[in-house]
Amino acid sequence: MLTLEDCIGLCELSADEVRAIAEHENLTEIAAAELGNYLVHCTDGEVRIKAMIHDDIEHAHRIGNRMRELTLKAMLRNFVLQHPGCEERHRQALAAMERRNPEA
């Protein structure tokens, strides 16, 4: 039987990112890990995860939860660093590199 930690380890997301998806989508963490795994591997899925985290940042700001807002901003920064496909400028650079190195 797989544990939550096993599922998080397999989904290419951090535990905090899985919790953010769970909170945003009102899911259990294990369901959020499954959704996150699906999104990480589908076209524009990383962009959707980024949007979820951004929505959570805006919500924390609206309700005045500064600590949560800052925590989510740090998480978003780390997510973008780990998943460069979620940033248009990174996608363009990756596409240009692929065009230059078609066998890579």
Provide a descriptive summary of the structure in words:
The chain has 6 helices and no strands. It has helices spanning 4-10, 15-25, 29-40, 45-62, 66-82, 88-100. The longest helix has 18 residues, at 45-62. The chain is globular, with a radius of gyration of 15 Å.
Low-confidence stretches: none
Provide the structure class: mainly alpha
Q: What percent of residues are in strands?
A: under 5%
Query: Could you spell the SSE succession in H and E letters?
Result: HHHHHH
The tally of helices reads: 6
What is the overall shape? globular
Total beta strands? 0
Supply the number of structural domains: 1
Task: Give the overall pLDDT as a whole number.
Answer: 86
**Radius of gyration (Å):** 15 Å
State the end-to-end CA separation. 37 Å
